[in-house]
Specification:
By secondary structure, the protein is an all-beta fold. It is built from no helices and 17 strands. It has two domains: 25-64, no CATH class; 71-218, Jelly Rolls. Strands 5, 6, 8, 11, 14, 16 and 17 form a seven-stranded antiparallel β-sheet that branches. Strands 7, 9, 10, 12, 13 and 15 form a six-stranded antiparallel β-sheet that branches.
């Protein structure tokens, strides 16, 4: 007599061996789908881990997010200028001996910097000033936009050197943590405002006088 179905009482506990199971694909793992039916989880790639994909969905092999800082770069002003102005030209990525940026690089057009990826970014700026005359005050600013149009001062630094006589030199810095949720709309530029039109913002193509640092801290 042929047996077309095995009833539950006919299968005792611990009686089904590996040899009795249907062949499968190397690396697959058995789970259950949203309907409670057995399902094979496709084999992942080397280095991936099995992670939950939430209720109603089988787990999956996925690549773990990269930890730590994934992008860090430094730019600088290459040529000095006088008076108050947005910094729109003479900018380059640092290239002094030993420079070591990592990850995707910022891009800039007419002084407007575009981020290579979304994320939470630390922006640091150092302004090196040379002042002379009666008025020796200067402000350096980090200006950000979230609509690729109107800019607000996100952070600034104020240098006051009210003296007379020879040139006075000073540098000052400021920082801002910028949540870049859209690389098309979220951008940054830098500017300087001085009380004396002859005050100089120093730039140099060989080292960092006035310089800017961009570090991606993590996901937005």
């Amino acid at each position: 007599m042929a047996i077309d179905k095995i009833t539950t009482p006919a299968v005792t506990d611990d009686s089904v061996t590996l040899a009795k199971m249907a062949p499968g694909t190397d690396g697959n793992i058995i789970s259950y789908d949203a309907s409670g039916n057995p399902v094979a989880i496709a084999t992942g790639n080397d280095g991936q881990v099995l992670t939950s994909t939430g209720a109603g969905s089988p787990p999956a092999f996925e690549t773990l997010p990269v930890g730590g800082i994934t992008s860090a770069h430094q730019w600088r002003l290459t040529t000095s200028f006088s008076g108050s102005a947005d910094i729109t030209s003479n900018l380059e990525q640092a290239d002094s001996d030993g420079y070591g940026g990592i990850g995707s690089v910022m891009s800039q057009s007419s002084g407007v910097f575009t981020f290579p990826s979304t994320g939470v970014w630390l922006i640091s700026a150092v302004f090196f000033m040379r002042c002379n005359g009666a008025n020796r005050a200067a402000t350096g600013a980090i200006n950000t936009t979230t609509n690729n149009s109107s800019y607000d001062t996100a952070s600034n630094t104020y240098t006051s050197m009210y003296n007379s006589g020879n040139d006075t030199y000073a540098n000052s810095s400021c920082e801002f943590i910028f949540d870049v949720t859209n690389t098309t709309t979220h951008k940054v530029r830098f500017g300087v405002s001085t009380d004396n039109s002859s005050s100089v913002t120093a730039g140099d193509t060989n080292n960092n006088n006035t310089a800017f640092v961009f570090i991606r801290l993590g996901d937005t």
